[in-house]
Amino acid sequence: MPIINYYLCANNRLSAPGCQQKEMGMQTKIENPKSSTDFDALLRRKAQSINYILERILASQQIDGELKDALKYSIGTPGKRIRSLLVLWCCELVAGRVNHDAELAAAAIEMVHTYSLIHDDLPAMDNDDVRRGVPTCHKAFDEATAILTGDALLTLAFEILAKGIEEPATALRLIGQLAHDAGPAGMIGGQMADLKAEKSEGTKELLEYIHVNKTAKMFRCAAAMGAICGGAAKKPFDRLCEYGLKIGLGFQITDDILDVSASSEQLGKTAGKDVRAAKCTYPAVVGMDKAMKLQMKLTDEAITLLKPFGKKADTLRQLAMALLQRTK
Fold it and tell me: What are the residues facing 135 on neighbouring strands?
């Protein structure tokens, strides 16, 4: 049985006989995969290394008072740091090691991601009280402080790239990539479409537009930034970008599914909000069964894209599998 189906059948993610692997055409295998426990431990260790980088950057900034407290609070909440890790691992795949540029790029994308969560939780948007298992920024402080904290993280992300990357051409590419994928042609455009689609009859085309822009492009951005830091040639760069886009879309589909199937305690945020807000999600538009099939299809395609890299890409293969199987 192909490995994707083996894992999902073992975890009862699909109920149909054989997990419908023939219908889905799953063919990809990971050679010598680490156990999920080992990989979870690796994720935690690497996430902690990102935390140290972020702490050092914030400590070096001349920011005082409540704004600094809010910045430390928001960036210090226990996130998975997946986008940051993707930067580091793509750089390592291309260059053979993680370099200083990749560390700064990983911090920058985490800052932009955290800013987006702060603003997304505000009363004018998703109006959420809990994020990552703790009170959201506007609940821990106040709404104005939360807005300014998000603004500060967004602008600081570009400052550290502009000042910290030694090669001007590399800095320019990183800034351009992050600005494009986080901006109106990416994450912001997707979030706007997501808000406008509430309580409307969603279509598959609208759903894909929202999810690709709102979430997947930031995963693509992370892979692209890592490849840029590693000095990737065009073909490896394009492959890693496409890999990032596919696991990013799969990540958002998993979020949609977990909003329906998991508890608030499990998620670290309010479960069931998408359903109550009548959001345009994959389970709502195509149904749970098709959403789960698409999850696996995207994961399989992402892993297939890594084939030319050989065993050096095993960590990225394992990451794709871990995101498929996550429960929070």
Answer: 130
